[in-house]
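Q: For a teaching session next week I want to show students how multiple molecules come together into a single three-dimensional assembly. I've collected the sequence lines for a complex. Could you give me the predicted structure tokens for the whole thing so I can convert them for display?
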Amino acid sequence: MSAALECRNLKAGFGDHLVLQGVTLAVPSGGVTAVMGPSGCGKSTLLRCFNRMNDHLPGFFREGEVRALGRDVYDPTWPVDSLRFSVGMVFQKPNPFPMSVADNVLFGPRLLGIRQKQELSEILERSLRAAHLWDEVKDSLSSSALKLSGGQQQRLCIARALACKPQVLLLDEPSSALDPIATARLEETVLDLATSVTVLWVTHDLQQAARVSQHVAFLYLGELVEEGPTAEVFANPKNQLTERYLTGRFG
Amino acid sequence: MKPFHLVVGEDLPKRFLSAAALLVALGLMFGLTFLVAWGAGWGFWPKPLELLTLADGTKVLGELWDRESDPVGTGLRWRVKVGNRDLWGSDFRVVRQAEVVKVERPTDAWVLERWEYGNFYGFVLSLDADGQVFDPKTPGFQAILSRKLREVASLKRQSDKLAAKVARKAQASEEELARLASLQQAQEGCTLLMTTAGGERKDIPCAQVVHARPMNRLGFWGKLAVFGERWLEFITAEPRESNTEGGIFPALFGTSLLVLLMTVGVVPLGVLTAVYLREYAGDTRFTRAVRLSVTTLAGVPSIVFGAFGLAFFVYTLGGTVDKLFFASSLPTPTFGTGGILWASATLALLTLPVVVVATEEGLAAAPVEVREGAQALGATRWETLRYVVLPYAKPGIYTGMILAVARAAGEVAPLMLTGVVKLAPALPLDSSPPFFHLERKFMHLGFHIYDVGFQSPNVEAARPVVFATTLVLLVLVVLLNLLALILRNRARNRVMSQAL
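A: Of course. Below is the structure for the complete assembly, covering every listed component.
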């Protein structure tokens, strides 16, 4: 099994603050990999390294190799926009654009230059179905996305990312702004997706990590403490820090 | 019911202070609006014609405009608009109240609004039309008179048009001259024989008369109709009698076009400036200095902008344009003199700061999450800006537009240096190619108020025009603001999330 995402001795930070202190991680292709850890441990920074979303933040610096789909993400022949078409991302807070549901989903394909009506409507339906949103919005595709509920908005953001046919999906605590029912629907959606797309899911919710992931990585103070198959790590943590975190003694 | 001191709480004095401030502000604003509306309404409402008989037997016919205390002696004196400027040199006559022995409202008194010399107040002896003589006492006289006046007015329009055409050409054809002469002759056949209250005879050609009205015979509805007619004429007609009578259409048109051109100029420039400052430049010492200068620019007196507009737009830019494209007509300047284009450019510069500041605030309203969302989908900075950030910035942009329009519509000082005139011979937009004549001088409501109210030879008689022009300007600003407000609210609703 080859790695979909990979980083080697990755050091990254902002200004004079080093957030990631040399992380080496390989995310296996297919399925859901969860990155967990307490707040401020560098989970989001790590995630955002894979689609270069940190680059425009003030004072960002990076050292060490980052690879996605077997290619260096900083490869000058690989433009950042096409990297992001392959590595999609969903954020903590639902962030639909102030336009219709359909325009939201088709934002990416249109940037890719797809103009044909037939093709666009196929993409629209496929993406919304994959995000388990089609049945709820199929009659209101042209109404504003901002009128959807929080959970629907977050699934719309997934559909929007899927419309570009990414091979990897980065989820940055996507359920932290949602209620438990919306969270359950979101998890269900992502688990269905994970059969065809590699998902890297950042969460601080242990139960969620246990529920959704096959593979898990534990990050603490910018260092990778432990990684491995979820069942194994949860049952038999090799590192004392992991054990203490899993048993709720800090975090 | 709670005790009063619990309802109002402890901050009663502060609450009263702020409420009093609001009351004062509202009072001042309502006072201003009411004064303007009252002045305009009163000025255009048909006033009865009073026939005053004085102690020495003199008879005075006119509208009673003012009762004021007599600076000499005691008692009141009346200011009566007696018109007939061609006979007596002035529109007004001041009469001591003590001298008045009798006041009547004769039903056979008429007001003639004339093209020249203002109103004529008097009695109709007869109408002499194409050899026929009509007595004002015959039934249906008023209908005959209005029909004749309409006919003559139509002839006059034709002959004026033809005369203007003839005047433009160096050599008029024989045929045209003959037609002009016959049109003019046809108008001469109609004359109103009038007499003043004092019995002075005056024959007035029908072609000189705009309206003839037996004012004291009109009931409320008749007066209302006259009131409406006067407003309609005011809005749609050209000014007469060095702007103290007639309409303000050219000024209304000039103001609207000026504001429109200014908006077309300032909005793209201001928005792009703000986009660069906020989205591309980053927060450096330089951008902060630029921002400070832009805000400072908003406090520069407008006459300074006028001077700059004259020096830069009119002389430098306009002069260059003339040298390059209109060299054949030099030394007569085409663009090298004040005109509506340069005036709008000056106003655009004047209102640039508000658009830049408001747009920057609008751009800041686009949430970081949404910007990142677009970038994570592979959108470039420009694509993010164009499709995602701009919808959020639109309410701010419209706010800037509202402020710019409101300020520009009311500015007068910079225009006086850059192309406004008291009487423009032609509109900046007409049917002769190339249709837009942006080099032309123009009239403006604000300047019209200044000119008619303070520079005209007949200030007193022009008072209704000043008030009415002010009212029209206020209404225009309100309408423009409403339009921008609707646009802004629509844009705002689009980016308001109902969830979360």
